[in-house]
Design a protein that fits this description.
- This protein starts with 7 loop residues before the first helix and ends with a helix.
- It is 39% helix and 16% strand.
- Helix 3 packs parallel to helix 5, helix 3 packs across helix 14 and helix 12 packs parallel to helix 20.
- The protein is globular.
- The chain contains 21 helices and 17 strands.
- It folds into 3 domains: 171 residues, Rossmann fold (3-Layer(aba) Sandwich); 125 residues, 3-Layer(aba) Sandwich (Rossmann fold), CATH 3.40.50.1220; 199 residues, Thiamin diphosphate (ThDP)-binding fold, Pyr/PP domains (Rossmann fold, 3-Layer(aba) Sandwich).
């Protein structure tokens, strides 16, 4: 070291510079920084590493979901830096989402040193284990000291590998780093880096799995990669899944709703991979079908809220293994059923928009333009899963905690430096309106489609709409807001427009994908009650089409 007695400020500057250097060597590509004083050492260390993309966002809650979006799109850990106090608390919702959705998030919170706790110091809360069991690893190294310098790179490695799931589940980690004043100092020479081999590998093919010549229905959810879905299809498994399941068969929910259709499509065995689809009808069929349900753990833990999985097997489907190959005729039966629904749906709409048509046009455009799609919770994720054509490109949705919090921010994180489409409801947009403050960064063409049905549309499908008096239902669940949503977007400096026909929506999507920045396209829709009736009509038609095929 160049100084005989380096100060604590110099030590902490060297400490954070070492962490950032190590993370850069490990492959960190993005860091989201929220302005704050106590986090200055971390912010400066990241700012001075041009190989790490720096995203500065002023609202910590929104910033954390933006980081979730970046991690989803990049499929590697993303760091977020915040100052002490309630700034750290603002990240809690995104940490919960990252935990349940297995998103690699490195949460770096600045803290006051121990002597400033419990004495009334400003902007100081108890940040120890702030996120509880939601993080894969919690580290609190204390105020940096040069005599601990040999521990700095191993600390960075532990956090990276825990977030990356190298020894467990992918997910968030938390470093709570105490910094003393002065906060500004130049780092000294960093401890040397050591070479490390890449130990990552794909799961092996599943053993103890024998489904040869059986009718195999593979139900996939969040976490199932396109490669896993392709392997399952190659093994002659029928693959149906949630909105994010790229390459799965479309229209499973409207098909399995009907007893007469399910009796023809019932499988010999069900294989579950990843999370769960939004379809409650599909879930209920698995509960009541009486067939064996196998959890294939090749995409993280298999979600099993209904306790239907009878056994769990590790590994991937492998079409070269004869024991893994299912009944090709069963695949053809499902494929023809899906194609039948697709053919008839294409004839139903003229130019008048409804919620289903908006979802169908959004997916159609994302497929044809080969851009990523981010889908909000409640009705958008269901209409994409149930009524839209098969997704050919990347689709993302915050289905860990299944909430509407932070969806616009997640969308902007996914869209960064690319072209992307988002689909949300009006309440979801307003809930995360702070995302519009910073908007997207440079080199981004983002189109956010807002299905404006005047409130929380999902509740109109639930018992509350039938059993709660209408005025009380509107106040507590419908929650209509009269904001001009296109005007809200324009007030933040973004392009905003309202559309009311299919032609207008198609044109707005195409123009938005060519327009730099964020375009908010608000689709004016019929009432929430009309939306319920439309879904009931479509489900009735599917049964009629099947009977007359």
């Amino acid at each position: 070291m160049q100084q005989s007695v380096p100060t604590a400020s110099v030590a902490q500057a060297t400490f954070v510079a070492t962490l950032v250097d190590e993370w850069s060597l490990l492959g960190l590509g993005d860091v989201v920084v929220c302005p704050g004083s106590r986090s200055t050492p971390l912010a400066l260390a990241f700012s001075r590493r041009p190989e790490v993309a720096l995203h500065v966002r002023i609202d910590e809650r929104s910033a954390a979901f933006f980081a979730v979006g970046r991690a989803l799109a990049s499929r590697r850990p993303v760091a977020i830096v915040v100052t002490s106090g309630t700034a750290a608390a603002e990240l809690h919702a995104a940490v919960a989402e990252a935990d349940l959705a297995h998103v690699p998030l490195m949460v770096l919170t600045a803290d006051r040193p121990p002597e400033l706790h419990g004495v009334g110091a400003a902007q100081t809360i108890d940040q120890q284990h702030l996120y509880g069991s939601k993080v894969r690893l919690y580290e609190e190294p204390g105020v940096a000291r040069f005599d601990a310098a040999t521990s700095w790179r191993p600390l960075a490695q532990r956090l990276w590998r825990a977030a990356n799931g190298d020894a467990g589940l992918v997910g968030p980690v938390h470093l709570n780093a105490a910094f003393v004043e002065p906060l500004l100092a130049n780092p000294l020479e960093l401890p040397p880096a050591s070479g490390r081999a890449d130990t990552s590998s794909l799961p092996a093919a599943a053993v103890d799995l024998d489904v040869r010549d059986q009718r195999v229905l593979c139900v996939v959810g969040a976490g199932a990669s396109p490669e896993i879905i392709a392997a399952a299809r190659e093994a002659q498994w029928v693959v149906v899944g949630d909105a994010t399941a790229r390459g799965s068969l479309a229209y499973a929910d409207p098909l399995v709703r009907h007893d007469e259709i399910w009796s023809d499509l019932v499988p010999d065995v069900v294989i579950r991979i990843g999370g769960i689809p939004a379809s409650k009808f599909l879930a209920q069929r698995l509960v009541t079908s009486g067939v064996d349900v196998i959890g294939l753990e090749c995409a993280g833990p298999v979600a099993d809220p209904d306790a239907v999985v009878s056994r769990r097997i590790a590994g991937l489907p492998d079409a070269s293994n004869r024991a893994h190959v299912g009944d090709a005729d069963y695949v053809a039966l499902w494929r023809d059923a899906s194609a039948m629904v697709h053919k008839h749906l294409a004839t139903l709409w003229d130019e008048v928009l409804d919620e289903v048509l908006v979802a169908r046009l959004v997916v159609e455009t994302a497929n044809s333009h080969q851009v990523s799609l981010v889908v909000g919770s409640s009705m958008p994720v269901r209409d994409v899963e149930w009524w839209s054509e098969a997704r050919q490109g990347a689709v993302y949705s915050n289905r860990g905690a299944n909430g509407i919090d932070g969806v616009v921010s997640t969308f902007l994180g996914v869209a960064q430096n690319s072209r992307a489409i988002g689909l949300v409801g009006d309440v979801t947009m307003l809930h995360d309106v702070s995302a519009l403050v910073d908007g997207p960064g440079a080199n981004t063409n983002a189109v956010l489609v807002v299905s404006d049905n005047g409130g929380g549309g999902i509740f109109s499908f639930l018992a509350q709409a039938r059993e709660v008096p209408a005025s009380e239902f509107e106040t507590l669940f419908g929650t209509p807001r009269l904001h001009d949503l296109a005007g809200v977007a324009a007030a933040f400096g973004h392009h905003g427009e309202t559309v009311s026909s299919a032609a207008q929506l198609r044109a707005a999507l195409a123009a938005g994908l060519d327009r730099p920045g964020l375009s908010v396209v608000v689709a004016t829709l019929p009432s929430r009650e009309a939306n319920v009736a439309r879904h009931e009509e479509l489900n009735t038609l599917v049964a009629r089409w099947w009977a007359s095929r």
